[in-house]
Amino acid sequence: MPSLLICGDAVAFPVLFRRWMLDAGFDTVTQARTAGEAVSKAREAQPDVIVVDHLLPDATSEHLVPRLRAVAPESRLLLISGMPGVTLAEFADTAGVEAHLPRAATAEEMQEAVLALLSAEAR
Q1: Cβ–Cβ contacts within 10 Å for residue 82, how many?
Q2: Which member of 28, 36, 42, 95 lies 3.0 to 4.6 Å from 72 by CB, making a disulfide possible if both were Cys?
Q3: Which tens digit of pLDDT belongs to each residue from 15-67?
Q4: What is the pLDDT of residue 121?
């Protein structure tokens, strides 16, 4: 079964996202609230997909994405942010993030994005 790491410091979002992904069939959904914790958990778990909130207490995704790539190079990355869509898309392209969504995306959109990353990985 696929595994997922959610990196986000908001109280409700990671809890909701975890529930949505468990409902979608994930059996391992790990959470990290800081960039340091995310890197440690990614190194240990080597998750199939890592969901990264753009702003964490100790780093932004600009600093975190390269660190995650270094410790979990096979993981697919989904960037979540409240940034305007064009800025988010530009950053995601520059950083080499496989997918991005606005934080306002629905549960179904988030599930679809994660499942699409897994499908792309299987090809």
Answers
A1: 11
A2: 42
A3: 777 787 788 777 788 889 899 999 999 999 999 999 998 878 888 788 899 99
A4: 59
* CB-based contacts of 12, cutoff 8 Å, min separation 6: none
Q: Cα(49)–Cα(28) distance, rounded to whole angstroms?
A: 11
User: Residue 99 corresponds to which amino acid?
Assistant: A
73 close to 101: Cβ distance less than 8 angstroms: no
Find the domain containing 82 and state its range. Answer: 3-122
Model confidence pLDDT, tens digit, residues 57-104: 888 788 899 999 999 999 999 998 876 666 777 777 887 789 988 888
Question: Residue 117: which CATH number?
Answer: 3.40.50.2300
Q: What is the pTM of this model?
A: 0.87
- Quick one: 98 exposed, middle or buried, by C-beta within 10 A (0-12, 13-18, 19+)? middle
Write down the residue that tokens 């340091």 correspond to. 36
- What is the tally of structural domains in the chain? 1
